[in-house]
Amino acid sequence: MPAVLIFTGVTVAHEHPQSPAELTPPAQLPWLRRFAARQLGRGLTHLQAQHRDSWFLGHVSGQRSGHADGLREGLEQGRVEGYEAGRQVLVIRDTRPEAAAVPGCDDNLFDDWRLPLSAELKKRFKADVAQRLPAEAQPSAAQWKLIFSDTPSTCVVAGAGAGKSTSLVLRILLLRHYLGYELDAMTVVTFTRESRKDFIKRLVQVFALWQLNLPPPQARELVRTFHSRILPLVRSLPGFGQVRAFETLGNELPAGREAEGESNPFDLRLNDAQRQQLNLCYRDLLQANPRFAEIITTLRREALQLKPLDPDHPDVQKRVQVTQLAAQRDEELCDVIEDLWFAAGAWPIKGIEPCRETVEIRGSRFHVHGRLEGTDAWVVLGFDPAQGAQYQRPGAKLAVRAEWAVKRTLLQAFCDKPLIWLDNYAMARRLAASLAGDAVAGPGFEYKVKGELAPAPLLDAFVAAANFIENLGLDVNTGVAGMSFPSGDSDALFFEALALFWKALEAHLLGLSPPVMSYNRMFALFGENNPENLQLLPDPLLRPLAHLMIDEFQDVSPQIVSWLRASLVEIRRRGPTLHVGRNAQHSSLMCVGDDWQSIYGWRGSSPKYFMEFAKAFPSPANTRVMLVDNYRCQQQVIDAAEYLVKGTPSIAGKKARASGPAARLPGVPVRVFERDEAALGQTLVEHYQRGESVMMLYRKGSDKALMNDHLQSVLQAEALLPADQRRLRQLTYHSAKGLQADAVFMLGDCQYLTSSPYKNQVYRLAGLGRAGDAQPFDTAQKEEVQRLAYVAVTRAVSHCYWHVEAANSEAQGAPRASSQVDGRQAFFEDLRGQ
Q1: Which of the residue ranges 29-38, 301-310, 445-454 would you say has the lowest mean pLDDT?
Q2: What is the mean pLDDT of the chain?
């Protein structure tokens, strides 16, 4: 309905001269007077004179009539016009919804702002860089785009040898020296101790070229690992002021430097201090929880029992032919083995009843050494490797180790009774301590989770599985609850026990004085599921996260991503109050990485967040930079490495080119051979004697000892040199990332040999992998073996030699990175089979 507005007013009368008395019209006069008036009027007209009273009478009469008519017309016209005008201004229609309006919310993690970089400032900085840095260190156009990125978020795709570290150092210099941003508003994140030390050294050197003093303690405060940055946040919470990280137990830094937390996030080995706490928690839980004790008993028997072997297996078919001969010498063999165990103090074992019962194999009898008390499981003592592979019985043709291997194979294939095989003295001592009730010694047996390559002590297996689940951003209990296993699968019991143990362990660690907490638990405390904890932090602790620069971002885990996003949300929520009186305002995120170098998926990392950066970190504006120049490798090394990963999902448009001094190196193809340690060693020695730096890369640690026999001359020469002059590095493929050498020697193929049911399940729970993929973790690992080969090859400046094993029957069908090698390509020289 139109709104109606009524105006009230006052009518003002105009004043006129007083009108004379009313006169009689001529037509109403008598005839004589009418004639006289007519004559008189003509006379006045002829004389051009006025009869005053008659003029006023006519004027007033006309004015009255005209005024009345004009007022009537004007009023009508004005009323119509005024009404229409009034309608345009005053008619208000209420179109609002019944509910009150709500301001819109966006999902951005950043305010809509830009770095204040004027053309003049850019020109001045470029001139300073040209003057102070050598010609070979001058940034490329793409590197300048990184340095001058002015958007809240920046994703930098930097392949191997791209010069990203120098670019990041110049970015920090720009923010600090030219824009006046405070260093305590920034954090540079590196993944390892080595890369952190290298970056700090470079940062201090470049600042010095600008006559800027950057004390090492201040540089260490700026350049951090994720783990060292989270620890102060937890210590700010009430009651956690002295909390220690479980991962650093036994490796505590001096007072005042604990927050630096220089632990290697990819090192899974447990030390004695950590193991002691695991064992104490295990002891208490074993006594307090009957269900846990029941599961441990079942798992122990399952783990110790000799695994059956298919009678059609080639090893069985080969050894079954000597069954009768092996049975004839078996009792004597048992005596020899038992004597060795007695001498080592490893036999008898409390809880195992010694006996020499027999088991029938294909009509022949073999002996056991005892029976596990309270069960029907027999026990056989194995041959400890410490006795030496050549140890023989008097008069025997075969070594004891070989005789025992025959017996073990036959028992695996044809024994239908539960059988425990104790491989070595250490295993027996752990079992003895456990059977004797010494729960502080731990469970005393190993367990192999399906999909893992080797068994591990039970508590170590607990830690590894829990870390993987938590790295994916899941709570252990939630992860276990989301799994399912076939009926009778012992992994179901393993994970049930893990859920019970992990909850107890966290309570046990927090009960210590001072309390202890794992890094994963710390990140979870400040992740997206716990935003209220971030709100408890004082500004000085949150401010260093305002301007983040993260290297090797392709190796980030879902757990870390959750913490980063939650922190950025809290920084934006606090708004200007977080930055009062400071030049550094708002927040920004710059992530540098290479999806082709993502090689830590087995730990729970994923390149997804780097490949989908804009989706993972929504921003009002985003900059993407592609660093395609490779300042390390000659072009054929680059081309060969990229060919190895061409079948993996990756960021589109990547193609590196040799640049700088690397562009002038002669092209030499990557050479691929059948595995030959002696030939590999000979070629390595030749390169070393030319004065080149060399790198020996292994897939398995056992290969290092194997190669040392072929590298004696180089090892002796290296031992005489100072550390900074040595030219040989011996590393695993994984640990070589970030390093380089003139010539690289790779021993071993990159293969994914297994399938992990539990990791596939938690991968799906964490939202990783492609939709509809029933085995997303396995798929990711098949792609990762190609990326691992890429990383290894791109360590080479000029020469790369790769020795790979021939595919064996057990690995048939398993993805092999070397299968990507194509000898028809100019950048490969495939010499296998020649």
Answers
A1: 29-38
A2: 88
418 compared with 687, residue with greater pLDDT: 687
Reported as half-sphere exposure (CB side, CA atoms, 13 A), residue 322 has a value of 17
Placement of tokens 């941003």 in the chain: 181
Q: Could you give the residue range(s) of every CATH 3.40.50.300 domain in the chain?
A: 635-830
Cα 391 to Cα 399: distance, rounded to the nearest angstrom: 6
Render the burial of 639-648: b for 16+ CB within 10 Å, e for the rest.
Answer: bbbbbbbeeb
Q: What is the pLDDT of residue 52?
A: 57
* Type of residue numbered 136: E
CB 186 within 8 A of CB 546: yes
Contact criterion met (CB below 8 Å) for 495 and 483 = yes
User: What 3-state class would DSSP assign to 218?
Assistant: helix
Question: What angle is formed at CA 756 by the lines to CA 750 and CA 762, rounded to 5 degrees?
Answer: 120
CA 496 to chain centre: 27
User: In Å, what is the CA distance from 597 to each residue of 192, 504, 656?
Assistant: 15, 37, 14
For residue 50, pLDDT over 70 is answered with: no
% of the chain residues with pLDDT over 70: 86
Going from the C-alpha of 392 to that of each of 284, 331, 383, 598, the distances in angstroms are: 45, 15, 11, 49
Measured from the Cβ of residue 130, the count of other Cβ atoms closer than 10 Å reads: 11
Q: CA–CA separation, 102 vs 117, rounded Å?
A: 35
Task: Give dist(CA 546, CA 567) in Å, integer.
Answer: 9
The alpha helices in 472-510, defined as continuous H runs, are 476-481, 490-510
Residue-wise pLDDT tens digits, 369-418: 999 887 788 899 999 988 888 888 888 888 889 999 999 999 999 988 88
- Give the pLDDT confidence of 93-152 residue by residue, as tens digits: 666 667 777 787 889 999 999 999 999 999 999 999 999 999 989 999 999 999 999 999
- Give the CATH class of 635-830: alpha beta
Tens of pLDDT along 324-374? Answer: 989 999 999 999 999 999 999 999 988 899 999 898 988 999 999 999 887
pLDDT single digits (tens) 235-244: 999 889 999 9
Judge contact between 174 and 147, C-beta under 8 A.
yes
**Which ranges constitute the DSSP H helices of 690-756?**
702-708, 712-719
DSSP lists the bridge partners of residue 420 as 305, 379
User: How far, CA to CA in Å, does 777 sit from each of 154, 357, 766, 770?
Assistant: 28, 46, 11, 10
